[in-house]
Amino acid sequence: MKLAFLHLYLATASGDPRMILSIAKEFKSQGHEVKVYCSEFNPLFLTDLHRDLNIKVVPPRASLRLALGASSFLGKIAERIRRTKLYTDAAYRIADKLDKDFDFIFCENDYTYKAGARYKKFNSRAKVVWIMNNPPFYHSPKNNFLVNIISQCAAVYEAVVAKKFVKWIDWVVVYDKKNKADAEILGFKTKLIGNPLDFDYFYAPVKKLISGQPIKILAVGALSPLRRFEDVVAVTAMLRKRNLDVRAIIVCKDYWSDKKYRESFTSFIENSGVKEYIDIRFDGVEEEEIMQMLRESQVSVVTNIAKVWIATACEAMAAGLPLILTKTTSLADVLSDGENALFVDPRHPEQIAEKMEMLIKNSELYANVALAGQRYVRENLSFPKFAQEIIKYP
């Protein structure tokens, strides 16, 4: 079969670019003809994934990064409008450059589903699959009341727009129950499939905690108030007060150049009393560094308050780290509390500290949770299985 994979921004090493390139690579290894289309591409990132792929860059009318970074209330409104227009235009530009004989169009990004729908008008035979990792109509609570209201209105508007494209999208792949329900309300046919990864690449034996050895918490994700990295810092402080030698590694690349929040988070660390025990990486890390961090860490923590899939947490589980995560994340929909992960309520670092102390003081619990998490990833989140599932009609 001839397959196209669409993503607007392949210029970082973040989760979405990694995912679309990995899926494309898997299908190519199965003998399919594969092309990847994007608006922006940086060959310096994820070279092992894109090295043998056919990447087609269709430049946008302006850099997609120009639609990010607003801080004021009015600025955020203007930014949302500007981003919608710019990203939609970029999606349509890609659609117009696609070969006319694809069998499948896979869209992974907020707005590439519009490109798939536009393409269907030229080639009605093609199947258009929207891999809905970050739906544009998703709303996350905002601290500012007015900004929160505007965000809710924008989400409703995006949902109304998406509904108009239902007849052109054959089915939607989602990673959690909420996105599945939201997509089905709009009329999309959906499939719930866990986000895959290369298990063998990340695999490492489950560690044995050694008395007197520092315990390192690993938390990874884009810098955002929704990630609640403050809770990781707070947990570190709590456990150190209990005479436990706990430290934290926080990889939180500032993708959106949010200067105001970055300064706020930096100040929080400065005043935490445990600054010297926090390894913070605002610029992200290279692939080799994250692998080293996985080898050096003992526990993976997800403090996110948003309903999104955390691919880096699955990588940590594959690497043999037990996972503590908030109940609000998409992963909580597929994992089992007390079996292959430990769940906590969002915005409750004291619960994370409690779970951490349980793992540190109970080596059997530590091993059981880590092994069960590793087994879940191996059995359920492989790329061959994912590739097989996303081309099946729901």
Major sheet size, sense and barrel closure:
7 strands, parallel
Shape: globular
| Number of strand segments | 15
Helix content: 40-55%
Kindly report the average pLDDT value.
91
Give the uncertain stretches in residue-range form: none
Q: Briefly note the structural class of the backbone.
A: alpha/beta
Side-by-side strand order of the widest sheet: 5-3-1-6-7-8-9
The termini sit apart by 19 Å
As a percent range, the share of strand residues is 15-25%
Give the C-alpha Rg: 21 Å
- Give the helix tally: 14
Q: Helix and strand succession? A: EEHEEHEHEHEHEHEHEHEHEHEHEEHHH
In short:
The chain is α/β, with parallel strands linked by helices. Helices cover 43% and strands 15% of the residues.
Description:
The protein is α/β, with parallel strands linked by helices. The protein contains 14 helices and 15 strands. It has helices at 15-29, 47-50, 73-97, 112-120, 145-163, 177-186, 199-202, 229-241, 259-270, 287-296, 311-318, 349-361, 363-380, 383-390, and strands at 2-6, 9-10, 33-38, 40-41, 55-57, 104-107, 127-131, 171-174, 190-192, 215-220, 246-251, 278-281, 299-302, 323-326, 342-344. The strands form 3 sheets. The protein has a 7-stranded parallel β-sheet, sandwiched between helices. It has a 6-stranded parallel β-sheet with strand order 12-11-10-13-14-15, with helices on both faces. A two-stranded parallel ribbon has the order 2-4. Strand 10 (215-220), helix 8 (229-241) and strand 11 form a beta-alpha-beta unit. Helix 8 (229-241) packs across helix 12 and helix 12 packs across helix 13 (363-380).
